[in-house]
Every structure is written in C-alpha cells, then in structure tokens.
C-alpha cells in the first residue's frame, strides 16, 4: 500500500502556485479544510480561482483569503455570509460565477467522472443561461453546463488512513467526496489518521485512489455560522 502521508498542512500545500484553480470542500463552515486554508494564507499567492459551495465568513475560511486579496475569481452557490465578498464583488475587484447549488454539485461530479458537459433544466430563462447552449428534449428546454476541475482540491474528513481512504461525517459529506475526485492533486486533512487496512472498506466514502496527500489536522475550531437557540 502506498503511504500518502505528509507531516503537516505546510508540506501538503507547498507546491500550490499563483493563478491556480482550487477546490474547497465543505458546506457552510462544516467540513472545510481549516488547516490547509491556514497554510495557504502563509504563502505569497495571488490570482487564484476558488471553487466552493460558499465563500466562508469574513474572519474564517475562504473569507480570510479574500481579505488577503489572494482570490481573483469565486465559483460558488451561496455567498450571503461574507461582507468582504460582497464589497469586492460590487467594487469590481472580484470576478464571480454564481451557480445553482445542484448544478455546482453536478459540474464538480462531472469533472471527477470525466464527463465534459451535460444538460440541465436549472437556470433556463434566467441570467444563468446567458451565453450557454440551450436544447429541447421531449418538449422541455435544457441548458449545457460544463464540468469543473481543479489543479488542487482540498478536502477535510473525519477519519482517513495512510493510503488516502476517507470517511466523512454528517454535513461534511456534501461537497467533499465529489471535489476529492475532481482535483489533479487532492489534499486531504483528517481529524483521525489510522494505518492502512484499519478502516472498514464498506464505510469508505472516498477511495484512496483519488487522494495524493493526507495529513492529520490540528486545532479544529469547527465554527457555526448562525447559532440559534429555541425560545422557552
């Protein structure tokens, strides 16, 4: 079995370059690769294209990369929690491609599956359809969407082994598995790293074939975007 472990986040991200296309797993602030993002913030990077369901918040996650002006373009579905994102978008500093959430998920999945394009009804008749091919199938209009791939995909799992097999927990399973398959180089950080062969093969969500580097993360904050409590 190939041992894909690296010592830490800094070693894992050392060859990330300016103008690269990056994918970040997670849903909201759940399951985001916190350690990898912190390591990227220590580097002198610019012109990045970031593909993520959302853009973090002002002081956490991808929001910190936006503050540092590392990001040239965001490809996302939901960005409503980030005031700095809004400011850069309205000022013209940041290029943004907003995509329906299901379409974003399928474009990433298609990238991992080697499917260059597909037709979907989502977005027909809206700004999403501008400049895209539209065809009719069985009396209904569909627009052509293209795959999404990345130079580097960053994912965060609950548990992984030294061969790169991953298990996600809860909401973190939303975008992480499909992004792991769509990166030329996929970097996984895990809460618990175990020797190869210790994970139940029937419980693995991402096979190690998709992962090039893995490390055990530290000091996870696991922020909550909007904390609410029930009223008596």
TrEMBL record:
<dbReference type="InterPro" id="IPR037171">
    <property type="entry name" value="NagB/RpiA_transferase-like"/>
</dbReference>
<protein>
    <submittedName>
        <fullName>Succinyl-CoA:3-ketoacid-coenzyme A transferase subunit A</fullName>
        <ecNumber>2.8.3.5</ecNumber>
    </submittedName>
</protein>
<dbReference type="InterPro" id="IPR012792">
    <property type="entry name" value="3-oxoacid_CoA-transf_A"/>
</dbReference>
<dbReference type="InterPro" id="IPR004165">
    <property type="entry name" value="CoA_trans_fam_I"/>
</dbReference>
<dbReference type="Pfam" id="PF01144">
    <property type="entry name" value="CoA_trans"/>
</dbReference>
<keyword id="KW-0808">Transferase</keyword>
<dbReference type="GO" id="GO:0008260">
    <property type="term" value="F:succinyl-CoA:3-oxo-acid CoA-transferase activity"/>
</dbReference>
């Amino acid at each position: 079995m190939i041992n894909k472990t690296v010592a830490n986040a800094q070693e894992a991200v050392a060859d990330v370059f300016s103008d690269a296309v990056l994918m970040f797993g997670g849903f909201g602030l759940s399951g985001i690769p916190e350690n990898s993002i912190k390591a990227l913030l220590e580097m002198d990077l610019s012109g990045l294209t970031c593909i993520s369901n959302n853009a973090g918040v002002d002081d956490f996650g991808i929001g910190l990369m936006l503050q540092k002006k590392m990001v040239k373009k965001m490809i996302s579905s939901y960005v409503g929690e980030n005031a700095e994102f809004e400011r850069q978008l309205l000022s013209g500093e940041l290029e943004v491609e907003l995509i329906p959430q299901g379409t974003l998920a399928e474009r990433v999945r298609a990238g991992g599956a080697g499917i260059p394009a597909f037709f979907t009804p989502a977005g027909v008749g809206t700004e999403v359809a501008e400049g895209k091919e539209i065809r009719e199938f069985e009396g209904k209009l569909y627009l052509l969407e293209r795959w999404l791939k990345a130079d580097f995909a960053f994912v965060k799992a609950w548990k992984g082994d030294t061969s790169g097999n991953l298990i996600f927990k809860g909401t973190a399973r939303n975008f992480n598995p499909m992004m792991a398959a769509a990166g030329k180089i996929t970097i996984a950080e895990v809460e618990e790293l175990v020797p190869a062969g210790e994970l139940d093969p029937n419980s693995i969500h991402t096979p190690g074939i998709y992962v090039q580097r893995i490390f055990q993360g530290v000091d996870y904050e696991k922020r909550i975007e909007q904390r609410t409590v029930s009223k008596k």
